[in-house]
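Tokens as discussed.
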């Protein structure tokens, strides 16, 4: 029998199938956790809803699915596949908020005014029917197209307006807008080798969805902490020690840009003001360096720390949790159960209210989250190497760090970072390193942080069992060290080492 919504389900849930709800996700996304709606109320205010897949309806405490999901902690996203936290039947079908299909949701609904000020908040278990499963690009096209005025598009436009106000409010409080490089690979359908790589493009709709997910997470965090002060599962981001900022401050000084790090708001203001005429990428590079100064955000149980340590430094909010992605994060499953108990929609159970077991679970979630990040980065690294295996490409890069024997180079086009080692073909270092001004000098050429360079990216195959990405300097020209420029790409199979003769 296929799964269907029964009359009993309708009796114990709020029926929101009449609302013009839609989801906005990356292309190819099948595990759709969240959907949104916005409509005008008769009193002149706006009703805004964030609707999250109700995974806890299907995964009950202590069953085999729950035990395995708790152990895995998170879905792992690799370049060419996804290792699900929950079975695919749930992640891509029964829980996923697919377009034009009726699904169970856990809804966070606010009444707001036009200035995005919250007048009232409520939480409810619901039944929804998403009118459209959109990509960020399609949602942006709808918002920008003046000829489209259907209910979904009008809702998106209003959500986008509110999101901009919410974002400004967060930034005014000291929230940080940091930067990192994310890439997307185009794969060959037969060989599954990467045939193209590009950095992901961010649109207004990315920010729109992010703002309402953040708002839902903050609203839920307040509610579960109020109801369960000893056992709420929350997420905190400690402020970095001032020593962490030394590379950032030094990098700013090298370009006569002052970076203040006394508070997160001071840092946010400094980053906003940091501009150099004629160097449009400078601010992004500075934000990338700031990202690397940060501490890791972690899950914790509220009963194990004093309230003044709940603060989330990056988001500038006194309390935070994860509620909006229960298909791919087990932390959100626990938060759903706490919220469900708080509003009387479900019953509690012993382990949920045991702060020591909750903290033990948080420790595993933190570990699994870190391992998933490492796996994702390693997957990108592997596919980047596969992409360059038979080619050499000259591309623009920027110096991120100056080291004693190398320059750390970021190549924005490929979201790639690598070391440009400063030894020539004879193994001699023709550069002079200055630690005081963080520079490397060869003749009249001096390299500092943020300097623009052109490098050749290829694969070093001298050790066939340990092939690695290598960078060579093309521009500026350093006599005896840099290589001559070439076309956009070159087949380098001729440079491969000869195959060893097989034994007879």
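Sequence:
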């Amino acid at each position: 029998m296929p799964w269907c919504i029964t009359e009993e389900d309708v009796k114990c849930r709020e029926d929101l199938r009449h609302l013009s709800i839609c989801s906005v996700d990356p292309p190819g996304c099948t595990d759709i956790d969240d959907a949104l709606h916005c409509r005008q109320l008769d009193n002149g205010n706006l009703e805004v809803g964030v609707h999250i897949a109700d995974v806890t309806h299907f995964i009950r405490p202590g069953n085999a699915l729950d035990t395995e999901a708790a152990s895995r902690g998170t879905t792992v996203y690799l370049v060419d596949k996804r290792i699900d936290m929950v079975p695919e039947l749930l992640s891509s079908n029964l829980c996923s908020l697919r377009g034009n299909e009726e699904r169970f949701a856990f809804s966070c609904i606010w009444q707001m005014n036009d200035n995005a000020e919250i007048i009232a908040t409520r939480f409810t278990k619901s039944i929804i029917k998403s009118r459209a499963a959109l990509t960020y690009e399609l949602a942006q096209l709808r918002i920008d197209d003046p000829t489209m005025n259907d209910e979904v598009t009008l809702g998106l436009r209003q959500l986008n307006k509110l999101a901009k106000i919410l974002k400004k409010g967060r930034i005014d409080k000291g929230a940080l807008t940091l930067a990192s490089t994310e890439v997307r690979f185009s794969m060959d359908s037969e060989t599954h080798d990467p045939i193209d790589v590009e950095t992901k493009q961010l649109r207004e709709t990315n920010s729109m969805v992010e703002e309402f997910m953040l708002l839902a997470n903050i609203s839920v965090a307040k509610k579960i902490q109020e109801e369960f002060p000893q056992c709420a599962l929350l997420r905190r981001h400690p402020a970095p020690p001032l020593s962490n900022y030394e590379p950032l401050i030094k990098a700013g000084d090298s370009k006569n840009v002052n970076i203040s790090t006394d508070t997160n708001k001071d840092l946010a203001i400094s980053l906003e003001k940091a501009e150099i005429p004629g160097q449009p990428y400078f601010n992004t590079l500075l934000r990338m360096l700031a990202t690397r100064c940060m501490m890791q955000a972690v899950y914790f149980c509220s009963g194990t720390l004093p309230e003044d340590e709940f603060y989330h430094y990056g988001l500038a909010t006194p309390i935070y949790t994860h509620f909006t992605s229960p298909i791919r994060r087990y932390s959100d499953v626990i938060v759903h159960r706490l919220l469900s108990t708080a509003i009387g929609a479900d019953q509690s159970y012993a382990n949920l209210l045991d702060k020591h077991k909750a903290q033990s679970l948080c420790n595993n979630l933190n570990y699994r989250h870190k391992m998933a990040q490492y796996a994702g980065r390693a997957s990108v690294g592997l596919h980047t190497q596969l992409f360059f295996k038979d080619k050499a490409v000259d591309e623009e890069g920027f110096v991120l760090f100056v080291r004693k024997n190398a320059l750390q180079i970021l190549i924005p086009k490929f979201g790639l970072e690598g070391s440009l080692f400063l030894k020539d073909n004879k193994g001699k270092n023709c550069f002079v390193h200055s630690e005081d001004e963080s520079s490397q000098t060869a003749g009249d050429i001096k390299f500092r942080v943020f300097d623009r360079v052109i490098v050749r990216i290829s694969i070093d195959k001298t050790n066939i069992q340990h092939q690695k990405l290598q960078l060579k300097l093309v521009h500026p020209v350093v006599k005896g060290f840099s290589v001559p420029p070439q076309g956009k790409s070159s087949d380098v199979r001729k440079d491969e080492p000869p195959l060893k003769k097989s034994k007879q």
